Amino acid sequence: MRKKSLFPVALLVSSLVFSILGGCGPNTTSSPAQTNANAPTNSSTSSTTPTQPASEVKLKLVHEGKLTFAMSGLIKPLNYKDTNGVLTGFDVEIGNEIAKRIGLEANPVTNPWETILQGLKGGKYDAIIGSMTHTEERAKQVDFTDPYYISGGQIFIAETNDSIKAKDDLTGKIIGVVQASTHKDVAETLTDKTKVKGYPSDIYALQDLVPGRVDAVITDRVVGTSAIKNQGLKIKATGEVLNKENIAIAVTKDNPELTKKINEAIKAMVEDGTYEQISVKWFGSNLLK
Predict the structure, then answer these.
(1) What is the SS3 assignment for 220?
(2) CATH entry, 11-150+246-283, from 2.60.40.150, 3.30.1490.180, 3.40.190.10, 3.30.870.10
(3) pTM for the whole thing?
(4) Are 70 and 130 in contact (CB under 8 A)?
């Protein structure tokens, strides 16, 4: 994901979701956070009670009987602390559900993003479930599961706009982007450079779609989707993701059985509809489609 600031409700989403691509160095892990007391009551998505005895699962774990998974805790609505200081968000709920299906107690913790890979390799937690992009460089250090959501650059337009259906329709159009973002470079290949309008944050750009001050906005899929769900903006995504990014769970290379179990849990969640239920709750759409 790109490195840039994002809109105010998810300003941290925008600035930290895209700092996800940064490197990591040594640091310490913060104390494990509580699971969300305000999570949905549906047992298929909120319960962290093991569905099978943890002793039957032969896994290498930091804490016996627990799946300890890390995130920055600063990327709303993906992972953040609510007003009561409880760690919550899409990533947390996905992790809780995976733990339950494996037969373990969910134990989400926070760690500074810049050192999160080092913490995993150093044995501070079992996995990273924190909106990390699967990249070739990272795959040299850790293993990745199948993606649990898809992100990347996405075109957003006003709900009433039926003239822009794909990137080829942006020729000659005014496109809003965050200043100094990677999306600015993409926009300049799709329309005249003079028609690319820079903004200090995504929310300002997206808000200019309905009044027609810009014809389209290119931002990260998860950012625009979150704005529709949480800000009620009358906008919509159009066309394919411009640069597809697989967001996956990182596990150490010496723990292939855990990677296998997590993949099995993700597959089962998708097949029985639990994944879509969680995704729609946080974003109003299925992030794997």
Answers:
(1) strand
(2) 3.40.190.10
(3) 0.73
(4) yes
